[in-house]
Amino acid sequence: MKKGVEISFQLNDSDQNQEIVKALGNLTGNHFLNNYVEKWSIFHITLGDHVFFKVLYSGEKIGKLHPAIEKEIKEYFDDLSKNSQEDLMKEYKRAKEKGGFKEVEIKELKEEYDLWQDRLWDYI
Asked: Domain named DUF2004: which ranges (predicted)?
């Protein structure tokens, strides 16, 4: 059974500022670290002409059996994303200065369209 939360998003800014992405992903991961989240990964994904980001949070208490936890993580991430860029970066800087803050780097990933994807394979 899948034990994780996946959040996919794009930035409004065409610069695709990776510091903002790291701030959103790492602040959320550290907020839930040792409660629900054990580890997380941040990806910069290229799919054809499209570019977006994906953050995956995993832990034993995350999964389809715990929809309230998944909702809580997504809502926290969404609330952070509503902050101004300046406020978000200030909060990120303060958090990094505290001891024990875990920081994950962005990994590059290139995906290809899967035109043969069929839900039938999920059941076999």
From this structure: 1-124
Contact 105, 22 (CB under 8 A): yes
In a domain, 105, yes or no: yes
* Stated pTM of the model: 0.84
Question: Do 61 and 69 form a contact (C-beta atoms < 8 A)?
Answer: yes
Segment (H or E) for 53: strand 50-58
> Is 47 within the bounds of a domain?
yes
Secondary structure letter of residue 113 according to DSSP: -
The pLDDT tens digits of the residues spanning 6-50 come to 999 988 765 558 899 999 999 999 999 988 899 999 999 998 888
Q: Is residue 117 assigned to a domain?
A: no
> 108: domain CATH number?
3.30.70.1980
Inter-residue contact 37 to 62 (CB < 8 Å): yes
The one-letter amino acid at 44: H
Q: Which of 19, 32, 25 is nearest to 90 (CA)?
A: 19
- Is residue 118, in this structure, part of any structural domain at all? no
